[in-house]
Structures are given as structure tokens and as C-alpha cells.
Amino acid sequence: xxxxxxxxxxxxxxxxxxxxxxxxxxxxxxxxxxxxxxxxxxxxxxxxxxxxxxxxxxxxxxxxxxxxxxxxxxxxxxxxxxxx
Length: 84
Hints:
mainly alpha
């Protein structure tokens, strides 16, 4: 029997893999209608992943410590400058 934590961890891992695959599929579509379908599925998969993540985090199974504001600002500046 699997624990709730193991089940949620497996669901989150599967959701992450699904988003990776649908992203690859959408990038490799030759037909616009198929690409749009893949992108719609990808968006749905991201929503599912987000739901699982928040449930897992709320139960304390996926701790995410808050980042220091200074570190957040440094990262924003770094990536903002890299796209100029």
C-alpha cells in the first residue's frame, strides 16, 4: 500500500513528465491545428501540475522555503538583462 505522500509525489512526477512531453510534441508539429491542440493540452497539463503541486505543498510533502527578497530581485535583474 502506498502512502498519500508517495501517491502525490508520483502524480507530480508524472505531471512534470507530461508537460515536458507535450511541450516537445507542440514544438515538433508540422500542422498548425495539431500544434494548437498540443498547446491546449499542454496548458491543461500545467494546470493539473499546479493543482498537484499546491496540494502536495499544503500537506507539507513538498516544502518550499521562501526566497530572500534580495535573491528574488537579483534573479529578476539577471534574467531581465539577458533578454536585451
